[in-house]
Amino acid sequence: MCLAIPMRVTEVHGSPEDFTTSQIAIVDADGISREVRLDVVDHWPSVGDYVIVHAGFAIHSLIEAEALKNLSLLKELAAQMPEELLS
Amino acid sequence: MKYYDEYRDGASARALVAELRKVVTRPMRIMEVCGSHTMAIFRNGIRSILPDGLELISGPGCPVCVTSASHMDAFIAMADRPGVRVAIFGDLFRVPGSRGSLANASSRGAKVDIVYSPIDALDLAARHPQDLVVFLGVGFETTTPTIAATILAARNRNISNFAVFATQKTVPPALTVLLEDPELQLNGLLCPGHVSAIIGAGAYIPFAEKYHIACVVAGFETTDLLTSLIMLAQQIGAGEARVENAYARAVSWEGNTRAQQMVAEIFEPCDTQWRGLGLIPGSGLKIREKYRDFDAEVRLHVTLPPADEPKGCRCGDILKGISNPRQCPLFGNRCTPASPVGPCMVSSEGTCAAFHKYGLEV
Ligand code: SF4
């Protein structure tokens, strides 16, 4: 049930404090644009950030730099290791 | 930019597999708590490359699977009431209660709608003012904030023909039950990704300390899972028991405080029944008095009927990690995804469904 792929935010509507407005972002997931709710997102995203979505609601937002940092750690780890086949 | 492709990169995965083989220096038992991890581990072929000595046990983290037969019967009875339209996540549709499923109720005329989000259930209520739309709340910490937000939206939009039958559960009390069980003998926990995005990696510190168990919060991609298993094996090999966060791109130490606050506004803890694990104190959530107008149990005077678990089904032992599906005599013959006997075969995150789909001798 958990969709782990972060989706890129292309539009943000509403304000984080005002729950009577529609708190909505438009996201891009592999070229398909979708609407997600921002009611319970941890940090209010800006256009260009990424969000992780569960059941139509963004639950976490991250900036590109965070995503890349995580990635470079993984790469470093991998680079120190010998190549070996899977089986 | 599609940076996440890198997390599926074959070359890094191979290097990580080699490293995992190196760090598993003694026999160890690790439980993957979350059903999405169970599925991801099978799908990525990780089960087939595990080094000897590393035993992976599936845990209770499939929300549909731990929903008791009694709750299923109450859901079905609710769908059968005139004037009620129930909205559910698709996984619940074919789960058997003690007499049939919501699918059976639907074919005899009950109104059962499958939705993608609780907010879709609220839109259904707006479109069907003559029905009371009841969202059947099944899920863990990740799902509950979305339900809380939907209840607040219902209030803001003045939609009064909407209610929630709340049976969501929280993971830490179930972990306590498992870790108290002398039969299980776990050395490590692969902690859920998106449950932890809400509750925070810090939530596992009491477990690491009290039960001396290594805890690593993991993401869902191949490299995430392999890295997390390496971290667990390193800790266990060194005799350590700490909480490490290998999914920092989604999970912080304190979690999503905004979602936590919204959940606390609408819900309060209660005792609830888990399939397989029994009644666990404080592991359920009920709607607070202040929001009783949105509580289907209050509005429709629900009582939970006593119910029998499906005959011969061993989901209970499987959810506790003490049996695996191959030890169930019904597995693959009387019980298949096309004709499931128990919930672990119905849900796309169920351990029996995973074993059946990926057909591995493990
Ligand atoms: S194989 Fe079917 S009957 Fe056996 S434990 Fe799994 S769900 Fe239950």
Automatic annotation (TrEMBL), chain B:
One of its GO terms (molecular function) is iron ion binding. It comes from the Bacteria. InterPro entries: Hyd_form_HypD, HypD_1, HypD_2_sf. Transmembrane segments: none annotated. One of its GO terms (biological process) is protein maturation. Belongs to the HypD family. This is Hydrogenase expression/formation protein HypD. It comes from Desulfoprunum benzoelyticum.
